[in-house]
Amino acid sequence: NVRLVGGHSRCAGRVEVLHRGQWGTVCDDYWDLADAAVVCRELDCGEPVDALSGAHFGPGSGPIWMSCVACAGSESTLKSCASSGWRKSYCGHSKDAGVICSEVRLVGGSRCSGRLEILHNQTWMSVCDAAFDQQDAEVVCRELDCGAPVQVLGAAAFGKGDTQMWTQEIQCKGNESQIHLCPTSLSYKHNCSYVHNIALLCTEIIHVRLVGGHSRCAGRVEVLHRGQWGTVCGDGWDLADAAVVCRELDCGEPVDALSDAHFGLGSEPFWMKHAKCAGSESALKKCGSMYSIYHDKCLEKNAEVICSEVRLVGGSRCSGRLEILHNQTWMSVCGAAFDQQAAEVVCRELDCGAPVQVLGAAAFDKEDTQMWTQEIQCRGNESQIHLCPSSPSCQNTCSHENYVKLMCSGSMRVRLVDGNNSCAGRVEVLHRGQWGTVCDVFWDLADAAVVCRELDCGEPVDALGGAHFGPGSGPIWTNRKLCTGSESTLKNCGAVEWGPFHCDHTKDAGVICS
């Protein structure tokens, strides 16, 4: 039901979909790597290399069947992805979407390690070790967005497999973007068995970084794609997106998602525009994104993140053994180096209310982390623990029996105000110690369901707008919530600034729960 037309092979070209017996194209609005991944999977063509727009492979003809495609990336077919509906498009063929798939894969290991297989004449084939060298390995690892080759193994380290054997000699220079662009020698006659097929180990590189901040855990978001670092547009950037970045970088919890050039403006290319993370993804590249029609917004607004660099381990979100990130290493904190003021900063930074108890004994599971022994000297009003001064002179001898465990109140991060009870009213969200409202643009029952669930207030009865419960005051934290209805908390929903809407407190959202 899908094909690629106009490229060098069946795994690269303009995307066309078969619907009601007729082939038609796909509009490039919101077209991204998550959509391309579904096409490559459906065609058994390996990993997505690029998602292209602007009729890169030439304009098609006939109907434009799909537009505003929004794949999660895990679907088995393109037709299973959400879209604006069949033939509901204002696109012309100058906006036909395209895809390039890798036609190479690593099998039996991880995404970046395994037995090498190349797609040839619609058949996946193992590669003979005598036909492959270091330059070829560099091309494969780069094509799969896996950095540089660590090791090329001749023995079948990841299983023999039952594929046919590719015996032509591959002659890459090492700078090609894809392995199929490398010449091959038709005269190669080596007698190769499965014990000689290639296994390849590439470096599983991080594809995101934060630039311009005080540490690697704060700054402007940049993404690595096809060997080049590019910027992420700040249009629609929210805490769900920031959570994915902090997780990928092992930097703790998201403290803030910014888009006001706080860390300076980046430059093109913009690899992602309008990221649409659910918040649970392991990497930013696994999130979908939407094409932004407001290109000027991207020039003015870059995505930025501040991560906590502190976490509580072994308990719940708001209780556990305290660990601080120092020089890229998570370290436990000595009880003698930590006091009530420091506890107040940590709980507030993690959006967990106030500290209930600071304990020196290891009430949570012991770990073999290194020990932070410098004395932390917070006043208690700092926004993050790393902003507190520390004393390098603290020489307390500290064992794992003496590290800090912290219990915060875990305060509710959403409330309903000015209704007739605690389960009805204007929606307010707690962020960085301050209550603010939510805009009613596209506010619906799915959003209301999450609020009612978080407050243990039963089912949603109504989702109200127009400041039904009176206007709030202070910040308006989000301009649009994007809940599916299954999230456990409102903060787990995405949120975007949507088009030309400008909210004020006359548009505060409200909820009535059952």
Secondary-structure topology with pairs:
Blueprint: E1 2-6, E2 12-19, E3 22-26, H1 33-42, E4 48-52, E5 64-66, E6 98-101, E7 104-110, E8 113-120, E9 123-127, H2 134-143, E10 149-153, E11 164-166, E12 169-170, E13 184-185, E14 199-202, E15 208-212, E16 218-225, E17 228-232, H3 239-248, E18 254-258, E19 270-272, E20 275-276, E21 288-289, H4 295-300, E22 304-307, E23 310-316, E24 319-326, E25 329-333, H5 340-349, E26 355-359, E27 370-372, E28 375-376, E29 390-391, E30 405-408, E31 414-418, E32 424-431, E33 434-438, H6 445-454, E34 460-464, E35 476-478, E36 481-482, E37 494-495, E38 510-513
Parallel strand pairs: 3-5, 9-11, 17-19, 25-27, 33-35
Antiparallel strand pairs: 1-2, 2-3, 2-6, 4-6, 7-8, 8-9, 8-14, 10-14, 12-13, 15-16, 16-17, 16-22, 18-22, 20-21, 23-24, 24-25, 24-30, 26-30, 28-29, 31-32, 32-33, 32-38, 34-38, 36-37
Task: Describe the overall structure.
InterPro entries: SRCR, SRCR-like_dom_sf. Keywords: Disulfide bond, Repeat, Signal. This is SRCR domain-containing protein. Strands 1, 2, 3, 4, 5 and 6 form a 6-stranded mixed beta sheet that branches. Strands 7, 8, 9, 10, 11 and 14 form a 6-stranded mixed beta sheet that branches. About 0% of the residues have low confidence. The two termini are about 45 Å apart. With about 525 residues, the chain is mostly beta strands. The protein contains 6 helices and 38 strands.
